[in-house]
Each structure stands twice: as C-alpha cells, then as structure tokens.
Amino acid sequence: MSDYYNAFEMSPVPDPGPDTVPPEPFRGIYAMPAFVTIPTSDLAGSVDFWIRGLGFVELFSVPGAIVHLRRWAFQDVLLIQEESTPEQPPAIGVSFSYVLSQIDSVVEACRALRPNSVDGPRDTLWNTRDVEVITPENARIIVTAAKPFDPASQEAQHLAGVGITAPDVVRGDNREHA
Fold first, then answer.
1. Considering the entire predicted model, what is its pTM?
2. d(Cα 51, Cα 136) in Å, to the nearest integer?
3. Relative to the CA of 119, which of 89, 102, 157, 178 has its CA 20 to 30 Å away?
C-alpha cells in the first residue's frame, strides 16, 4: 500500500488536457494556507502587470499600501508598497498552475507589457509546460501547466524511474487503491 493517494478533489486545478477549461478566478474569503508577499515600488504598475499579464484579479486593496491578488483558490499574492525593489530577480521563484490553453496567451500578454520578461515555454521532465516570467518588481514567477499523462512517454518513464507512478485504479474514497 502506498502512503500517497489521489486527492485531486481538493485541488482547484482541473485535469490536464489541451481542451481543459480553466476555472474562473476564486473570489471567496478563506484562511489562506500559503501566500506570497512581494514588495513593489510601483504598486499600480505591478497590479496592472499581474492582472493584464498573468491573469490575476484584485480581491481587495488598501490604497497606497497593499493589493491582494488572486487567480484560482489558493493562488494568493499580496503586493506591498515599498520604497525600493530588488535590482535582480532572486534565485527562488514561485509557481502558479494554469491550463495548457492559457500558456501562449500569458506569454503574449506578458511580452506585450514587458518585452524581455518571459523565458520559455519549455517542457519539463515532470510532465509540465513551464514559462518563467520576471515581473516589474523582479519576482521570478513560473507559469506551469500539466500536460496530459501518457504512460508511454519519456516523462512517464522518467517519473516511474524516480518512483512516481500513476495509480491504475482508484476505488471508494481517496485512501483506497487497488
């Protein structure tokens, strides 16, 4: 028996596929289990990039101080007005899930707003298509979309090689596997 189980019912991320419809932005209020806080010296400019480039919505704001942005449930970003921002992007980044059909439009929108802000897209060994975006405040954002799982693919073989296999059958609740 595996210590892991399929818990996709908890996630706002839909099953991957080229025709998958992304969920609408989630505007509910909840206790955020995790969020990113990003300082910016140009709050209005940063909000514009995150909304028009990355597809976030403004959940609420305190004028001149903070803007709470969100896409899907559990994709929360707090932009905080600061005197300055880092001159270089950090080595660490934060990833946000998208669906495959959104990748090209995010790339186009971000490049239209900031021509040199995008690197990619590129396919990964863990079966995603990723784009790196450097935001106006020099945050490193990874826009990632799961690709459909093909058990015969090189990605599936790589994942199996490190011990990650897809369950053949899931019965009952999310703890009971065949």
1. 0.82
2. 12
3. 157
